[in-house]
Amino acid sequence: MEDQPLDSSKVRSIVGRRSLYWDQKVKRRFKYEAELDQGFAERVAKLAYGEKLYSCIQCGTCSASCPVSHWMDFTPRRVIALIQAGYKEEVLECFTIWLCASCYACTVDCPKQIKITDVMYALRQEALEHAGYRKRFPIPVLAREFFKQVMKNGRNSESHLMLNLYMKTNPFKLLKMVKVGLGLLRTGRFSLKKEHIKQREQFQNLLKAVDRLEKEARIEEANDRTAKRIASETVGRLEKEAHQ
User: Could you give the CA distance from residue 152 to residue 133 in angstroms, rounded to a whole number?
Assistant: First the structure.
């Protein structure tokens, strides 16, 4: 059987498609140190009520005990490693923090007593605050819309919550829920009325006061870190001058 010469046009077509595929699918998997958020681990550790986050030995017990790890893009062990390394964007955009079932199996089994479930809660707070989650992913959108309604009205209106959820994730799914929604409306289990508490102004003033105190605490904490860094640099410089 004789070898057939390859058609140059076919080769160019295959190479072109493959090049286009790699341009669309392949992403850079490393980061320079300047691109990392070096203070990310410290912020998460403080939100998660402890500094034990740094004591992780990467044994994988949390990943083995997690009942939903098979559906996660990063296992809990990898999430902890990414936090320690400063990969903020990758952690906040992953599905893992939203798939956590809060069963506390990882926290109970961790040999270093790291509160991994609290870490997941802290990461959710960071993702919601900085809008770091993936767009149109239902779980964080639902959480954000729920908090918006509660902060504005003091209560949650289920009909408006579901409408906002579907409009911001997949509007076509509303068509599938029309029959169910009409049935709930007929039986009085679903209302289009927007619910709210009586004294909304007092409630919002309370939330503003809490937010102001939190911002003041963060500023004070940042000033303390700056003062400690300056003191450390000064001590190091004086020691170096003393040895010269």
Answer: 22
Helix residue ranges per DSSP H, 86-115: 88-93, 96-99, 105-109
What CA–CA distance (Å, rounded) separates 78 from 75?
A: 5
- As a whole number of angstroms, the distance between CA 92 and CA 187 comes to 41
End-to-end CA distance of the chain: 81
Buried b (16+ CB within 10 A) or exposed e, 172-184: eeeeeeeeeeeee
Closest CA to 45 of 112, 96, 104, 94: 112
The model's pLDDT over 84-134, given as tens digits with 9 standing for 90+, comes to 999 998 899 888 999 999 999 999 999 999 999 999 988 988 888 876 777
- Look at residues 139, 138, 142, 147 and name the one whose alpha carbon lies nearest to residue 169: 138
CA distance 49 to 125: 14
- Spelled out in words, what is the top-level CATH class assigned to the domain 33-130? mainly alpha
Burial of residue 100 (CB within 10 Å: 0-12, 13-18, 19+) is buried
pTM of the model: 0.65
CA distances from 34 to 11, 83, 86, 108 (A): 41, 15, 10, 36
Domain map (residue ranges) of the chain: 33-130, 135-216
